[in-house]
Amino acid sequence: MPPLKVTVKGEVFSFDNERYPISEAIELESKLGMPFHAWKTALASGSAKALAAFVWLVLRRNGQDVAWEDIVSGAYDLAENDVEIEEEGGGDPTEAPLPTGDGSTSGPSPSDSGSGPGSGDTSPSPKSTS
């Protein structure tokens, strides 16, 4: 998985979301009072405290010296909409591709398919009266 592109207050940072050194995990557990796995789950669930820890970690990994206490106290002014997270190098890989050409999603039907208008027998069969 490519690194994440994290935008914090208009500044863009790269973040490797696949590698967490034990020292970082322990520090996160200490600051948050929850196990590391619970933090990852809380982040995915929209926890503000987990988001604050994520931003702190992104900033820290990118050489920004912002104290954890400044983020949680509001001294470092941060709102939820100040943070955008996406994959580097493109959009969501689960999005449907855009159509090309005339917007058609398939080619023409074969002309000898016999499935043109009026080619099928849709009238009820007569019943035998013997």
Overview of the molecule:
The structure is a single chain. This protein is of the alpha+beta class. The protein has a domain at 18-78. The chain has helices at residues 22-32, 36-44, 48-61, 68-73, and strands spanning 4-8, 11-15, 83-87. Strands 2-1-3 form a 3-stranded antiparallel sheet, covered by helices on one side. A hairpin with a 2-residue loop joins β1 and β2 (11-15). It starts with a strand and ends in a 43-residue tail after the last strand. 12% of the residues are buried. Residues 93-107 have low confidence and may be disordered.
Shape: globular
Strand order within the widest beta sheet? 2-1-3
Mind describing the biggest β-sheet?
Answer: 3 strands, antiparallel
- Please report the distance between the alpha carbons of the first and last residues: 73 Å
The helix/strand class is alpha+beta
Strand portion: 5-15%
Q: Level of helix content? A: 25-40%
Tell me, rounded to a whole number, the average pLDDT.
79
What is the succession of H and E elements?
EEHHHHE
In DSSP terms, counting alpha (H) and pi (I) runs of 4 or more, how many helices? Answer: 4
Radius of gyration: 28 Å
Low-confidence stretches are 93-107
Number of strands: 3
